[in-house]
């Protein structure tokens, strides 16, 4: 029996200068998609991806459509090669690539959504500067118990349930400093993250209405592949519910551990990170027990795509 496949899509933090260049040079369909993405967004995405500079590529208004464009092009290459996933999921920004892969959003609507999302997140981060940090080494239940009191002030959130012992917190800088101090006092690591805003926290609330207005203009279809949503950690099939979850995603926690556990329960043994770098590989490895069958692949360019396809042929 063939192993079930889950495709997972990365988001912010996976970018690098040069990403997508070899795919673009060798894939006519990628060239068409990149041109379409530039036309829709009005951004020089090819130049940003291939040449940088990194400072410009990393700006959230540029990064969100750039990473999504590459994720989609790689998924299309996999699909043309006959690879059919049993589940899809994306981490934060990567969730839009998963929605595209599942047939929920069209190419154009996916790009419109992530461009507006980046603009609004940047706007709110300018208004309400914040920070994020990873709390590492404390079981999630204990980390939640320790830090939940900080959420009562309305400027702090438990943002990403990334792994059984990795919780990312987000919010106002003062609350993040306090959370880091509490974690260190508890004897675990607190690592500040290099981000430009307090993503998935109440500080993004001002973006919700404008983003909801944009999403109501887009067409959401029922998924053709089970897609795990960040807000629920579960598959959702109703297009209206998916739209509502994406409206809430800006300020809601990313239930990544719960999403991976659901796919594990569905029989997934082969995991494919579709996009630049392999940030999600480390998280998935931390979630899956060591004695459980596990095969992880990264597809970010023609060479890694060929390597993955070779493993399927064995």
Automatic annotation (TrEMBL):
Residues 8-314 form the Malonyl-CoA:ACP transacylase (MAT) domain. Its EC number is 2.3.1.39. GO terms for biological process: fatty acid biosynthetic process. Keywords: Acyltransferase, Transferase. InterPro entries: Ac_transferase_dom_sf (IPR001227), Acyl_transferase_dom (IPR014043), Acyl_Trfase/lysoPLipase (IPR016035), Mal-CoA-ACP_Trans/PKS_FabD (IPR050858), Malonyl_CoA-ACP_transAc (IPR024925), Malonyl_CoA-ACP_transAc_FabD (IPR004410), Malonyl_transacylase_ACP-bd (IPR016036). The keyword Electron transport does not apply. Signal peptide: none annotated. It comes from the Bacteria. It catalyses: holo-[ACP] + malonyl-CoA = malonyl-[ACP] + CoA. Belongs to the fabD family. This is Malonyl CoA-acyl carrier protein transacylase. It comes from Desulfobacca acetoxidans (strain ATCC 700848 / DSM 11109 / ASRB2).
């Amino acid at each position: 029996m063939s192993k079930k496949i889950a495709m997972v899509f990365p988001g912010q933090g996976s970018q690098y200068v040069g990403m997508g260049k070899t795919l673009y040079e060798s894939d006519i369909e990628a060239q068409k998609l990149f041109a379409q993405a530039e036309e829709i967004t009005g951004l020089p995405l090819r130049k940003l991806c291939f040449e940088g500079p990194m400072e410009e590529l990393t700006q959230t208004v540029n990064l969100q459509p750039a990473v999504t464009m590459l994720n989609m092009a790689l998924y299309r290459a996999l699909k043309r090669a006959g690879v059919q996933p049993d589940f899809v999921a994306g981490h934060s920004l990567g969730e839009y690539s998963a929605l595209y892969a599942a047939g929920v959003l069209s190419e154009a609507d996916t790009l419109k959504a992530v461009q507006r999302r980046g603009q609004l997140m940047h706007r709110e981060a300018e208004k309400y500067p914040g920070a994020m940090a990873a709390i590492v080494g404390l079981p999630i239940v204990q980390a939640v118990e320790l830090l939940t009191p900080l959420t009562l002030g309305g400027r702090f959130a438990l943002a990403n349930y990334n792994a059984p012992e990795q919780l990312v917190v987000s919010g106002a800088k003062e609350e993040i400093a306090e959370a880091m101090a509490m974690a260190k006092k508890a004897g675990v690591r607190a690592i500040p993250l290099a981000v430009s805003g307090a993503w998935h926290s109440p500080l993004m609330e001002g973006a919700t209405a404008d983003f909801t207005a944009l999403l109501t203009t887009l067409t959401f279809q029922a998924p053709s592949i089970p897609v795990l949503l960040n807000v629920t950690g579960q598959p959702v099939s109703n297009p209206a519910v998916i739209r509502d979850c994406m409206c809430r995603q800006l300020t809601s926690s990313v239930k990544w551990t719960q999403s991976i556990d659901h796919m594990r329960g569905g029989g997934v043994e082969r995991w494919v990170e579709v996009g630049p770098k392999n940030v999600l590989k480390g998280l998935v490895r931390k979630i899956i027990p060591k004695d459980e069958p596990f095969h992880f692949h990264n597809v970010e360019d023609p060479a890694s795509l060929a390597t993955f396809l070779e493993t399927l042929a064995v």
